[in-house]
Design a protein that fits this description.
single chain, Rossmann fold, 7 strands, alpha/beta, binds S-adenosylmethionine
Length: 252
C-alpha cells in the first residue's frame, strides 16, 4: 500500500481503523511508547492549567486517557465538568468501561461529572463558548481537515478559553531522529500489526498509518501558524521527550 493511501484521512476508514484496534489500543500505546504516553498526557493537562471548576471538553477522546487525566485535576469540585467526545463508538465504549472501573475503585473524584459521547470533532454538539478548555491528544492529526477541526474547537471555547493539542512531532537532534525513525517506521508497525487485534487487511495497519500520518502532520512551528490562522492567540508549544511529542496551547 502506498504511503499516501496509508495516511488517507477518509473518516469512514479512520473510524473503522480505530474500531479494529480499540481492544488493544491502550496496551499498545503504553507498550510501544514505554509508558511515555501517560507522562505526556499528564504534562499536557498540567501545562494547560486545568483545575477545579473548569469545564473541559476532550475531543477525539478515544479510550479516554487524556480526559481521565483532566478529570483528576478537577478535584472534588462539583462545579467543573469533563466531557469526552469521539466519533468511534468502540473507542468511547472502552472509555466508559474505564470510567466505571475507576468509579467502582473510587480512584477518581465522585463530585466532578464526567460525560462521554459519540460525536464528530468537525460538528460538535455544543453551543459557542461552552468550555474553558478544549483538549485533543493524538487526535487532531486524524481529523480529515486540521483547520476545520481547530476552528470547531475554538467555536466551543469561551473567550479567553484555551485549546490544548498534544501530538507527535519529529525529534530535533539528528542522531536521535535517525534512531527514532528506525523504531517508528520499521519496528513499531511490525510490533503493532503483530500485537493488535485482527486488523482489516484492506486498512493496512494502524501502526503503519501512525508514522505516515505523523510525517504528513505540520512541524511544531508550522502548527503554531495553523493555530493562529484558525483564530488562536498567545500560541506557544513545549517539546516533550527529545521532541517525540509536543503540547501546543492557544487562547481564544
Ligand atoms: C490516536 S486516537 C487518540 C485517543 C486519545 N485522545 C488518546 O490520547 O489516546 C485518535 C482518535 O481520534 C478519533 N477521531 C478521528 N477523527 C475524528 C473526528 N473527526 N471526530 C471525532 N473523533 C475522531 C478516532 O476515533 C480515535 O479514537
Amino acid at each position: 500500500m502506498s504511503g499516501a493511501l496509508t495516511a488517507s484521512k477518509d473518516p469512514r476508514r479512520i473510524r473503522r481503523m480505530f474500531a479494529d484496534i480499540a481492544p488493544t489500543y491502550d496496551f499498545l500505546n503504553h507498550f510501544l511508547s514505554a509508558n511515555r504516553d501517560r507522562a505526556w498526557r499528564r504534562e499536557a493537562v498540567r501545562l494547560a492549567g486545568i483545575g477545579p471548576r473548569h469545564r473541559v471538553l476532550d475531543v477525539c477522546c478515544g479510550t479516554g486517557d487524556l480526559a481521565l487525566e483532566a478529570w483528576k485535576r478537577l478535584g472534588e469540585e462539583p462545579a467543573g465538568v469533563i466531557v469526552g467526545a469521539d466519533f468511534c463508538p468502540e473507542m468511547v465504549h472502552r472509555a466508559m468501561e474505564k470510567k466505571r472501573i475507576l468509579e467502582r475503585r473510587r480512584e477518581r473524584p465522585a463530585a466532578a461529572p464526567f460525560e462521554l459521547l459519540v460525536a464528530d470533532t468537525l460538528r460538535l454538539p455544543f453551543p459557542e463558548g461552552a468550555f474553558d478548555f478544549v483538549t485533543v491528544g493524538f487526535g487532531i492529526r486524524n481529523v480529515s481537515s486540521l483547520e476545520a477541526g481547530l476552528r470547531e474547537m475554538r467555536r466551543v471555547l469561551r473567550p479567553g478559553g484555551r485549546a490544548v493539542i498534544l501530538e507527535f512531532a519529529t525529534p530535533r537532534s539528528a542522531w536521535f531522529r535517525k534512531l527514532f525513525e528506525v523504531y517508528f517506521h520499521q519496528v513499531l508497525p511490525r510490533l503493532g500489526r503483530w500485537l493488535s487485534s485482527a486488523p482489516d487487511p484492506d486498512l493496512d495497519n494502524a501502526y503503519k498509518y501512525l508514522p505516515d500520518s505523523v510525517d504528513l502532520f505540520p512541524e511544531p512551528q508550522v502548527l503554531c501558524d495553523v493555530l493562529r490562522s484558525a483564530g488562536f492567540a498567545e500560541v506557544a508549544y513545549r517539546l516533550l521527550t527529545f521532541g517525540i511529542a509536543a503540547v501546543h496551547l492557544g487562547v481564544k
